[in-house]
């Protein structure tokens, strides 16, 4: 393992910790937003582990979590921007069970 790999691994650990904290802060929002930060935490953790051990399989797994995170982020962003006030159609969002968000019927 080179010094660059170690430095990148520790850098990604810092991002994993930050995204984990953000995930904890989204527990009163939607399922997709919490899922996005969960996938982001897994992405940074797997990338960090892949730099530590030099595993291509871990890098591929991190890429899969990255794709899932991108899809969740795009859907959630569109669903939160397309409201009844500014769009003719809306996408369904599922609030988490402790959130104060009301289901619109």
TrEMBL record:
The chain crosses the membrane at residues 7-25, 31-54, 61-82. One of its GO terms (cellular component) is plasma membrane. This is Uncharacterized protein. GO terms for molecular function: acetate transmembrane transporter activity. Belongs to the acetate uptake transporter (AceTr) (TC 2.A.96) family. The keyword Transmembrane helix applies. It is found in: Membrane. InterPro entries: AceTr, Gpr1/Fun34/SatP-like. It is a multi-pass membrane protein. It comes from the Eukaryota.
């Amino acid at each position: 393992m080179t010094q660059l790999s170690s430095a990148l691994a520790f850098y990604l650990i810092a991002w994993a910790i930050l995204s984990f904290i953000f995930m904890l802060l989204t527990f009163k929002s939607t399922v997709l937003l919490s899922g996005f930060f969960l996938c982001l935490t897994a992405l940074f953790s797997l990338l960090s582990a892949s730099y530590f051990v030099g595993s291509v399989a871990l890098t591929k797994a991190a890429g899969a979590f990255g794709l899932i995170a991108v899809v969740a982020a795009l859907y959630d962003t569109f669903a939160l921007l397309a409201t009844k006030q500014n769009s003719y159609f809306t996408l369904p969002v599922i609030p988490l069970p402790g959130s104060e968000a009301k289901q619109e019927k």
